[in-house]
Amino acid sequence: MAQESVVDIIHQLEKAHSQVESALEGISEDDLHNAPAGEWSIAEICAHVIEMGPMWMSKIVDIDNVHDLERTAKEIDRRTAEVTAHSSDDLSTIKQRMTSAHGETMRLVRLIDSVHLGKMTNLGTVGKAITDKLVAHVIEHAEQIKATRGSAN
To answer: What pLDDT sits at residue 16?
Structure first.
Protein backbone atom coordinates (compact mmCIF):
# COMPACT_ATOMS: atom_id res chain seq x y z
CA MET A 1 0.00 0.00 0.00
CA ALA A 2 1.32 3.44 -0.90
CA GLN A 3 2.33 5.78 1.87
CA GLU A 4 -0.22 8.46 2.65
CA SER A 5 0.53 12.02 1.69
CA VAL A 6 0.03 15.20 3.68
CA VAL A 7 -2.95 15.92 1.41
CA ASP A 8 -4.48 12.54 2.38
CA ILE A 9 -4.00 13.36 6.06
CA ILE A 10 -5.57 16.79 5.58
CA HIS A 11 -8.63 15.18 3.97
CA GLN A 12 -8.92 12.65 6.80
CA LEU A 13 -8.66 15.37 9.46
CA GLU A 14 -11.24 17.52 7.67
CA LYS A 15 -13.64 14.58 7.53
CA ALA A 16 -13.11 13.76 11.23
CA HIS A 17 -13.67 17.42 12.20
CA SER A 18 -16.88 17.47 10.12
CA GLN A 19 -18.10 14.37 11.96
CA VAL A 20 -17.72 16.14 15.31
CA GLU A 21 -19.49 19.23 13.96
CA SER A 22 -22.33 17.05 12.66
CA ALA A 23 -22.62 15.27 16.01
CA LEU A 24 -23.13 18.66 17.68
CA GLU A 25 -25.84 19.87 15.30
CA GLY A 26 -29.05 20.77 17.12
CA ILE A 27 -27.72 19.76 20.53
CA SER A 28 -29.37 21.34 23.56
CA GLU A 29 -27.40 23.03 26.35
CA ASP A 30 -28.76 20.36 28.72
CA ASP A 31 -27.39 17.56 26.55
CA LEU A 32 -24.13 19.48 26.24
CA HIS A 33 -23.57 19.57 30.00
CA ASN A 34 -25.25 16.42 31.33
CA ALA A 35 -23.18 13.28 31.41
CA PRO A 36 -23.96 9.64 31.94
CA ALA A 37 -22.73 8.43 35.33
CA GLY A 38 -18.95 8.15 35.35
CA GLU A 39 -18.53 9.62 31.86
CA TRP A 40 -17.50 12.99 30.45
CA SER A 41 -20.19 15.41 29.35
CA ILE A 42 -20.27 16.37 25.68
CA ALA A 43 -18.74 19.74 26.62
CA GLU A 44 -15.86 17.87 28.28
CA ILE A 45 -15.45 15.56 25.27
CA CYS A 46 -15.27 18.65 23.06
CA ALA A 47 -12.67 20.26 25.36
CA HIS A 48 -10.53 17.15 24.91
CA VAL A 49 -10.99 17.14 21.12
CA ILE A 50 -10.04 20.83 21.06
CA GLU A 51 -6.80 20.37 22.97
CA MET A 52 -5.61 17.15 21.38
CA GLY A 53 -5.22 18.18 17.72
CA PRO A 54 -2.72 20.99 18.28
CA MET A 55 -0.95 18.97 21.01
CA TRP A 56 -0.38 15.91 18.78
CA MET A 57 0.55 17.90 15.73
CA SER A 58 3.03 20.07 17.69
CA LYS A 59 4.79 16.90 18.78
CA ILE A 60 4.76 15.46 15.27
CA VAL A 61 6.07 18.67 13.68
CA ASP A 62 8.94 18.46 16.17
CA ILE A 63 9.49 14.75 15.46
CA ASP A 64 13.24 15.16 15.05
CA ASN A 65 13.43 16.26 18.71
CA VAL A 66 10.48 14.29 20.15
CA HIS A 67 11.11 10.58 19.99
CA ASP A 68 8.23 9.32 22.14
CA LEU A 69 4.81 10.42 20.90
CA GLU A 70 2.87 9.11 23.91
CA ARG A 71 1.42 11.82 26.16
CA THR A 72 3.73 12.84 28.97
CA ALA A 73 2.46 13.20 32.55
CA LYS A 74 2.52 16.98 32.05
CA GLU A 75 0.42 16.65 28.87
CA ILE A 76 -2.07 14.40 30.68
CA ASP A 77 -2.35 17.00 33.45
CA ARG A 78 -2.89 19.71 30.82
CA ARG A 79 -5.63 17.62 29.16
CA THR A 80 -7.38 17.16 32.51
CA ALA A 81 -7.09 20.90 33.25
CA GLU A 82 -8.53 21.79 29.82
CA VAL A 83 -11.45 19.41 30.26
CA THR A 84 -12.19 20.83 33.71
CA ALA A 85 -11.72 24.47 32.70
CA HIS A 86 -14.05 24.19 29.71
CA SER A 87 -16.72 21.86 31.11
CA SER A 88 -19.21 24.72 31.41
CA ASP A 89 -18.56 26.36 28.02
CA ASP A 90 -21.69 27.05 25.99
CA LEU A 91 -22.17 25.65 22.50
CA SER A 92 -21.15 28.86 20.76
CA THR A 93 -17.88 29.00 22.70
CA ILE A 94 -17.21 25.31 22.04
CA LYS A 95 -17.77 25.74 18.30
CA GLN A 96 -15.50 28.82 18.18
CA ARG A 97 -12.76 27.05 20.13
CA MET A 98 -13.13 23.94 17.97
CA THR A 99 -12.81 25.96 14.76
CA SER A 100 -9.72 27.71 16.10
CA ALA A 101 -8.06 24.48 17.30
CA HIS A 102 -8.85 22.74 14.02
CA GLY A 103 -7.29 25.65 12.14
CA GLU A 104 -4.14 25.37 14.25
CA THR A 105 -4.05 21.59 13.72
CA MET A 106 -4.32 22.05 9.97
CA ARG A 107 -1.63 24.76 9.99
CA LEU A 108 0.70 22.34 11.76
CA VAL A 109 -0.13 19.45 9.39
CA ARG A 110 0.85 21.65 6.46
CA LEU A 111 4.31 22.10 8.04
CA ILE A 112 5.06 18.39 7.68
CA ASP A 113 7.15 17.29 4.76
CA SER A 114 5.59 14.20 3.15
CA VAL A 115 8.96 12.47 3.51
CA HIS A 116 8.55 12.66 7.31
CA LEU A 117 5.27 10.69 7.19
CA GLY A 118 7.34 7.51 6.79
CA LYS A 119 9.69 8.30 9.68
CA MET A 120 9.48 5.71 12.47
CA THR A 121 8.29 6.63 15.96
CA ASN A 122 7.35 4.58 19.00
CA LEU A 123 3.81 4.50 17.52
CA GLY A 124 4.80 3.35 14.04
CA THR A 125 5.34 5.78 11.20
CA VAL A 126 4.47 9.45 11.58
CA GLY A 127 1.60 8.96 9.11
CA LYS A 128 0.25 6.01 11.11
CA ALA A 129 0.59 7.96 14.36
CA ILE A 130 -1.51 10.79 12.89
CA THR A 131 -4.20 8.48 11.58
CA ASP A 132 -4.27 6.24 14.69
CA LYS A 133 -3.74 8.80 17.45
CA LEU A 134 -5.51 11.81 16.02
CA VAL A 135 -7.88 11.07 13.13
CA ALA A 136 -9.28 7.85 14.60
CA HIS A 137 -9.55 9.39 18.06
CA VAL A 138 -11.50 12.41 16.78
CA ILE A 139 -13.87 10.06 14.93
CA GLU A 140 -14.23 7.96 18.10
CA HIS A 141 -15.24 11.10 20.02
CA ALA A 142 -17.73 12.12 17.31
CA GLU A 143 -19.38 8.73 17.83
CA GLN A 144 -19.20 9.18 21.61
CA ILE A 145 -20.97 12.54 21.30
CA LYS A 146 -23.75 10.93 19.26
CA ALA A 147 -24.12 8.11 21.80
CA THR A 148 -24.08 10.50 24.76
CA ARG A 149 -26.75 12.85 23.42
CA GLY A 150 -29.84 12.34 25.53
CA SER A 151 -28.41 9.33 27.40
CA ALA A 152 -27.70 11.29 30.58
CA ASN A 153 -31.36 12.15 31.16
So the answer is: 98
